[in-house]
Design brief:
Elements: H1 2-21, E1 41-44, E2 50-53, H2 56-65, E3 71-73, E4 83-84
Parallel strand pairs: 2-4
Antiparallel strand pairs: 1-2, 1-3
Protein name: Kazal-like domain-containing protein
Keywords: Signal
InterPro entries: Kazal_dom_sf
Length: about 80
């Protein structure tokens, strides 16, 4: 019985470490209570994709919940055709 407990503990440890290495984010830690209005924000990710967010809080929330991180950039970089998130 003790052998199975040790094996299960090791398996759980490996799964947790693997999930962290794969970029898993615990979305329950994201404080995403954002105002519905605010200054629009233009963000750019590491692949050069631009995205417009409803406000800085919305961009921070997106960054917390997703693997692709957006950094705020000058709004002139975002065009009318830029995806709104």
């Amino acid at each position: 019985m003790a052998r199975y407990t040790v094996i299960l503990a090791l398996l759980a440890f490996v799964l947790i470490v693997g999930a962290q290495a794969a970029g898993y984010k615990d979305v329950t830690k994201c404080q995403c209570v954002c105002p519905s209005k605010g200054p629009l924000v233009c963000g750019r990710n590491s692949r050069g994709k631009f995205k417009i967010f409803g406000n800085p809080c919305a961009m921070d929330c997106h960054n917390c919940r997703n693997k692709d991180y957006y950094a705020e950039t000058d709004f002139s970089n975002c065009s009318v055709r830029t995806q709104v998130g």
